[in-house]
């Protein structure tokens, strides 16, 4: 078996490559702008080059944790949002289908309006933002094009150790380590999801031949400001530096689901306890930061390849 991970320099992609190679699976990873050893440059916007890349490697599994996930950026640039989150992955998926490859796409709880979360896979989608709508459109078009060669993983608030240090946990670290306060929405609720767990479950579902939509997210629901305080406590910072404000006070360009999140009962039935709770994964995050070689004492950036079998 051969696998390809498009966007392997990102947080989900890095862990996917790590876990696939631990399983002995021949894995090729690509990057768009942030290069790392062992990854190949790929411009997914060049559809001809992207199709040639797939034809050259002929993977049986293609994971696409790439795309453009900046919600407010998508709101201000719908064309770019649609290209990165729909047109580019659809092109890769169709190229893979020519060789019998199955395609794993990552979607979001932002396909829902956040009025009655957590939502199940079968609940009607009602996106509030350009980002949510484009992700929903991609879900539909990929399903129509690929049938049972398509696996869609909806997730939320992905956190954890990663190479670029961009997720919310790192934002909390950077602010609080300098003694700065950090304003977070107190009325946005969802599932904090641990990136290493998401990668492992992604692979297990793909290897099991599953298709369709699966919610893959952390088991517990938290507001964004309470998540910030939990992160602060685990890393030894003052939780009172996290200041909660309502979404309406923050004037974010894109509307956010408030009572959001994903119901993961379907996943829990197939893979019980596969996703760690907030307390469990924050504890592991601290351990992984201590294990990582060459870590900056002021910022726990972790390279999955440095962790051996951790």
Description:
The chain is an alpha/beta fold. The chain has a domain at 2-165 and 193-219 and 261-284: 3-Layer(aba) Sandwich (Rossmann fold), CATH 3.40.50.720. The chain is built from eleven helices and 13 strands. It has helices at 11-22, 47-57, 71-76, 78-97, 130-146, 168-177, 195-207, 224-234, 247-250, 265-270, 278-291; strands at 2-6, 26-31, 39-41, 61-64, 102-108, 150-155, 158-159, 182-185, 189-190, 193-194, 212-215, 222-223, 242-245. The strands form four sheets. A seven-stranded parallel β-sheet has the order 3-2-1-4-5-6-11, sandwiched between helices. Strands 7-10 form a two-stranded parallel sheet. A two-stranded parallel sheet has the order 8-13. 47% of the residues are buried.
Overview in brief:
This protein is α/β, with parallel strands linked by helices. The chain has helices at residues 11-22, 47-57, 71-76, 78-97, 130-146, 168-177, 195-207, 224-234, 247-250, 265-270, 278-291, and strands spanning 2-6, 26-31, 39-41, 61-64, 102-108, 150-155, 158-159, 182-185, 189-190, 193-194, 212-215, 222-223, 242-245.
